Amino acid sequence: MALLYLPLYLVLIGFLSVFLWIPAFGLGVFLLVREKGCRLVLGVLFTLWAPALALVLLLPRAEEAFGFHLRDWLHSLPVYVWALLSIALLVAIARYAVKAFPRRWARLCLKLGCALTVLAVLTVGTFYLGLTGAPEEEGTWQGEKIVMRKFTWMETSYSYYRYNGPFLLGEYLGWSEEPWSLER
Question: What SS3 state is found at 167?
Fold first, then answer.
């Protein structure tokens, strides 16, 4: 019976492990400044990670501020890139930290902390994509090419936009609780 709750426990541990990001990235900055052997790898990873995080956080706000709607893949791609860079950065921090701290208990804590922070990245990334992601389907409705976005939270709803290319959604046409019959 306890195994039924295992996914819930993993998600809960993943969300609580977010608090380990601050000391992990602080340790990364400490190693970047202190250890000469890891400056290239950690420097490149931090340099790529920061703009990816900024893109994930600022893209929805830019949409609201400028009044346009991006396609779903333009929201998902930065989240995937951020997650991969975060995992690579956390593993690199743990690898270099294990070399820098010779004590056995410190190594065990670093390995456990790395595993928990990677779990946190996967949990938060999946949750973020679940809240912001909206699968899209292109089709023709009444002779006009449109994009149908499916939003699922408590109930499923469908929003419709004119097709405006692979990057932007066009004019908002309306929504429904049942999908319109689209011709492909």
Answer: coil
Tell me the one-letter amino acid at 132.
Answer: T
With vertex at residue 98, the alpha carbon angle to CA 16 and CA 117, rounded to the nearest 5 degrees, is 15
Q: Taking a C-beta distance cutoff of 8 angstroms, is the pair 148, 136 a contact?
A: yes
Q: Which amino acid is at 12?
A: L
Report how far residue 13's alpha carbon sits from residue 38's, in angstroms, rounded to the nearest whole number.
Answer: 30
pLDDT per position as a tens digit, 99-147: 887 777 777 887 788 888 888 888 888 887 777 777 888 888 788 888 8
How far apart (Å, rounded) are the C-alpha atoms in residues 172 and 69? 10
Among 65, 62, 80, CA closest to 133 = 80
Distances (CA, A) of 73 to 10, 45, 81, 146: 27, 23, 12, 16
Token pair 């990245």: residue: 121
Position of tokens 């939270």? Answer: 153
Tokens 């009444």 -> residue: 142
